[in-house]
């Protein structure tokens, strides 16, 4: 009898009639054993006390003209997911890649335009609201820019170089366009390997 499973290559006991890993029936040398071995695979696994592997999550296949990529199925987002993402976004801990940095920068531009419109209205309440919105957007922008500096392997204090003339242009180009460090660094895991954030 074979010492290894022909299907998965697992090591077999000399008396095994089924593979303990994949459940494939093992061919025997004598035809009498071949015909009498009508045993359920689940019974064999229970007798040999082989732990069954957990079921993999369903996968979606993305097709293209050249290849097929198997991806985990997307779970629908709930309000709790969005609250978690917002909570994770309102911090200076962690890293932020270029794409997510530009999404947040675009959001801040839109909010600053709205604040400017409110501040042009000749009344106290809209001007007050516009000023509060401007301050909140500025704090948020500092927070995600610090996380972008972390992606480059720099501390948030690195951004203070932005107050030096001409050096501020270099800092802005680096923060906006330079790719972050590959893999985890001292500030956290690679944001490209962290799904579920916007």
TrEMBL record:
Residues 28-74 are annotated as: Disordered. It comes from the Bacteria. This is DUF805 domain-containing protein. Keywords: Membrane, Transmembrane, Transmembrane helix. PANTHER family: INNER MEMBRANE PROTEIN-RELATED-RELATED. It holds the Pfam family DUF805. GO terms for cellular component: plasma membrane. It comes from Acidaminococcus intestini.
